[in-house]
Amino acid sequence: MSVFPAVDELKSTDALSAFLDAAQARFGERLAVASSLGAEDVVLVHAVAERVRAGGSPVRIFTLDTGRLPQETYELHEALEARYGLRIESVFPDTVAVQQLVRTQGPNGFYHSLDARHACCAVRKLEPLQRALGGVDAWITGLRRAQSITRTEVALAEQDGTRVKLNPLAHWSDEDVWGHIRANKIPYSSLHDAGYPSVGCAPCTRAVDPGAHARSGRWWWEDPEHKECGLHVARLRRLEDARRADEEIA
Question: Of 97, 89, 95, whose CA–CA distance to 136 is shortest?
């Protein structure tokens, strides 16, 4: 059973506004959009802005500034705020925690092991996310099933600890996303035109060859099944628990 049945039928690409309406009606001011400013996330920013322009209530939008973002991401941040007249809140990692991380593993220790990379993501992303979600009952993400092998079972609504995670673009294809961006002339990162289908921290993101999987340029030195920063780890744990249960039954 869905944790939020009101959105179960909102699966078409033209149902995004209705999805946001249902989410805001249910969660009100305790709803937030988490944006990495990737292609999916600019679609969400545009949708929120369009609702406000039509007389709807604003929804808080925040982004995690890890301190290692490419300049193009900051340029996009400013472009979105200027285009839509809204504020995208930047949430930063704890300064002391970053200093301790760098003392422990060096400035680029995340390349040396999976544990070191997870430690970096924990300091620069996970802890700031938890602070950003303080007082939030539901958060909206740009997760899509087509993004990677770790996201093929993304649901429109999922239980995420004590909160609900809403993924209105779960069923959108790459073509859906880019068709929507182009049709609405939504600002997007210039890195996408330079061969970066997915953009994260500068040292952990690189361009890929045409036709390569969208997430292949993220943490490219790791195996595909490890390519998550931990922001969506609760869902991955549920999938792993389900796999183990299936193996026990077999």
Answer: 89
Read off the pLDDT of residues 15-45 as tens digits, 9 standing for 90 and up.
999 999 999 999 999 999 999 999 999 999 9
Name the phi and psi angles at 11, rounded to 5. -105, -5
Residue whose structure tokens are 């704890």: 94
pTM: 0.86
Closest by alpha carbon to 51, among 211, 155, 6, 43? 43
Q: Helices (H), strands (E): how many in the chain?
A: 8, 6
Question: Contact, 31 vs 140, CB < 8 A?
Answer: yes
| Type and span of the H or E element at 181 | helix 174-184
Q: Per the residue annotation, which of 120, 201, 204, 229 is the catalytic one?
A: 229
Distance CA 202, CA 199 (A): 8
Round to whole Å and give the CA distance between 4 and 38.
Answer: 25
Is the CB of residue 91 less than 8 Å from the CB of residue 132?
Answer: yes
- The bridge status of strand 163-166 relative to strand 157-160 is antiparallel
The helix (H) or strand (E) run that includes residue 231 is none
229 a catalytic residue:
yes
Catalogue all structural domains in the chain, each as residue range(s) with its CATH number.
5-249 (3.40.50.620)
